[in-house]
Specification:
This protein has 12 helices and 17 strands. The chain is of the alpha/beta class.
């Protein structure tokens, strides 16, 4: 199968490209390297030293014998998008090519506008290119569980049956996004659903939880294939942050009370989910939604798990509470369905089994590259600007 991976140089895109290539698919990576440019903008870098895409692809060919094609360009450039879809006519397009950080979208007006314009217009260009040049192509789009928010009812997989005034219907699950970034994903979902309705596009929306880990079977084969590990306040997840803080002897900073609960999955499960989605494609006109995660944890749960795992390495980690810079419910009901990928054959990895090897050991190995000033939160959701914040209590 010919698979085009948009954003194939990124955190999810790179290991997905390797995994699909290893499965025997013909892979074309498309990227504009904006994620690397944002590192320069923010004055941060991946904890792990990542090679250039040219070096990565060359290393993969050396260790696997498989060639990955690279196309450099921007989804906002209609002529480029139209051209690559016309030239390659892919069987599937895996779409990771969006600005993916909620904090980045909340920095100020300019970053909010960039996030929405980049994500929504880029995806619209892609939909039109598929319609014109590859109408049978299956679009596999990375969404986010953040589209749903934290409703006080169970979260279904994309759709919910509603009874109102004696009548019933199955409708898209209500959206309650918590950032300009998450709103852009909601707009994407609506636009893709509309394309499926009017053009009979095939599409799978993967509402992914928080991904963790750097290690896949393919990235372990050569140091040049290593994946990103973001820990800064903009792109770093809470779990990554806790592991870094434990490694350098800094208290683990929990925002607010730490009761915020989310879905999580290992990067090895991300690449497997993509494989399952493209090998079991949606039907023409079908807009299907998979909730892509394997476990649920609160932020405080994560901190306690890291503290326990760190003790096995002789590290005495502490937990510290910070005022929450985000506008979110800190204690809430959270029960999200996630059965469709399991039904297709996903065999999950679990955090307790991966925490040391995929996270803490990596943090310890590269801790000399940590920039402590990049960790503390500086973006205020309410104020729309970046500023310094300090811890207020410790436990």
């Amino acid at each position: 199968m010919r698979v085009m991976v948009l954003g194939g140089d990124g955190y999810c895109g790179w290991p997905t490209s390797l995994h699909l290539s290893d499965c025997g698919h013909e892979v074309i990576i498309v990227d504009n390297f904006v994620r690397r440019q944002i590192d320069h903008e923010l004055g941060v870098q991946s904890l792990t030293p990542i090679a250039t895409l040219k070096q990565r692809v060359r290393a993969w060919k050396e260790v696997s014998g498989q060639e990955i094609v690279v196309e450099v360009g921007d989804l906002l450039d209609w002529e480029f998008v139209s051209g690559i879809i016309k030239n390659y006519r892919p069987d599937a397009v895996v779409h990771f090519a969006e600005q993916r950080a909620a904090p980045y979208s909340m920095i100020d007006r300019a970053h909010a506008v960039y996030t929405q314009h980049n994500n929504v217009i880029g995806t619209l260009n892609l939909l039109f290119a598929i319609r014109e040049h590859a109408p049978e192509c299956h679009l596999v789009k990375l969404g986010t569980m953040g589209e749903y928010g934290t409703p006080n009812i169970d979260i279904e997989e994309g759709y919910i049956e509603i009874e109102h005034n004696g009548r019933k219907d199955v409708l898209p699950y209500p959206k309650q996004p918590g950032s300009w970034y998450h709103l852009s994903k909601v707009h994407d979902s609506h636009n893709i659903a509309f394309a499926c309705k009017i053009w009979e596009t095939r599409a799978t929306d993967l509402n992914q939880g928080v991904v963790y880990g750097t290690v896949t079977e393919q990235t372990e084969r050569d140091e040049r294939l290593i994946n990103r590990f973001d820990y800064d306040e903009i792109y770093g997840t809470a779990l990554n942050r806790f592991c870094i803080q434990a490694a350098i002897g800094h208290p683990m900073t929990v925002y607010g009370k730490g009761g915020q609960t989310r879905g999580f999955l290992d990067i090895r499960d991300t690449v497997r989910c993509i494989e399952l989605a493209i090998e079991h494609p949606a039907e023409p006109g079908e807009f299907r939604v998979f909730n892509q995660f394997t476990e649920e944890f609160s932020i405080l749960d994560l901190a306690k798990m890291v503290k326990e795992a760190a003790s096995k390495l002789g590290i005495e980690a502490k937990i510290e509470n910070l005022p929450n810079p985000r506008v979110e419910a800190e204690e809430h009901y959270y029960n999200a369905k996630h059965t469709k990928l399991l039904d297709l054959g996903l065999e999950p990895h679990y955090l307790k089994e991966s925490l040391l090897d995929s996270l803490l050991n990596i943090a310890m190995r590269y801790k000399d590259r940590v920039e402590p000033d990049a960790i503390d939160p500086k973006v205020s959701w309410r104020e729309g600007q970046r500023k310094e914040r300090k811890a207020t209590s410790a436990v």
